[in-house]
Amino acid sequence: MSRRTQPILKHLLSARSRSVTYMPRPGDGEPRAVTMITGDGVGPLVTGAVEQVMDAMHAPVYFEKYDIHGDMKSVPQRVIDSIKKNKVCLKGGLKTPVGGGVSSLNVLLRKELDLYASLVHCFNLQGLPTRHDNVDIVVIRENTEGEYAGLEHEVVPGVVESLKVMISNLLSGSAVMKERIAKYAFEYAYLNNRKKVTAVHKANIMKLADGLFLESCREVASKYPSIQYNEMIVDNCSMQLVSKPEQFDVMVTPNLYGNLVSNTAAGIAGGTGVMPGGNVGAEHAIFEQGASAGNVGNEKEVEQKKANPVALLLSSAMMLRHLQFPSFADRLETSVKRVISEGKYRTEDLGGDSTTQQVVDAVIANLA
């Protein structure tokens, strides 16, 4: 073999070893508009972090930014119109008033856009010490019904009635609402090579409402014989989560239980500051920090600019996959995980003293 042909052969062999991970349709590489809600407290810090990283890796997205706050009476129509047009939104945390005052804008957005499924991915990050290993849990929560329907009234002075709404056999377009959260959970498990779905409930007490939820889960489970299905009462589930979290794979829950379960799972796996999540419906999706953003109102983090951007960076990687930009998502996720594993740049909630900007700079420096 001549010296002249050796470099050519080497090139051909290296090209042949590459696997085809995504075959785009013509036009898939066009930059996509994404609505951005900067949010309250640390929201502008962490959404700004995402913008910097997206710019650094030349991701094919650009943001339409809106300055929205949780104490507003409603979400301005121009924001709703932007999300409906773009189909995708990235959101910083919105503070929800406790007790009286305005309704939660987070809930209003979910209802307005019919984002019926919430997904939070709770998993161990290499280099981040936790009490349990081998945690890799996806919590899928019904997002628009249950106690979050917000139907409350005072029957007589001092007596308040709060309604839990579970909808059966009510057609919304072409979808039967009682089955869609169960179907989404099993579809997710099937498409992501997950082996088990656990339905979390309180049907031993709420026999009609949670009984309807279990009925839907059992019906859908019968159509996915390759996926193991089991059920667990929510109080036992809470105990099992903190003692043997490795037993869970995908969990599907009604609205209120899902909020509690996802935050518990996030705490076990490393904290709410590193867990990605999103809310999705048939037409639209909003990506945000996975578990409750308890740091939204942390004035110290705002003043010192030390908010943890990891959760929203990982959520934006989920967003990139949703937009069918998988290689950009892989680059971002790999870089974030490398920074966490090295341990040099971490914010206070992860045992470090880094600023948001220092973490962002480290992520950018580690982009492959």
From TrEMBL:
Residues 33-363 form the Isopropylmalate dehydrogenase-like domain. SMART domains: Iso_dh (SM01329). InterPro entries: Isocitrate_DH_NAD, IsoPropMal-DH-like_dom. Pfam families: Iso_dh. Keywords: Transit peptide. The keyword Transit peptide applies. Belongs to the isocitrate and isopropylmalate dehydrogenases family. This is Isopropylmalate dehydrogenase-like domain-containing protein. It comes from Penstemon davidsonii.
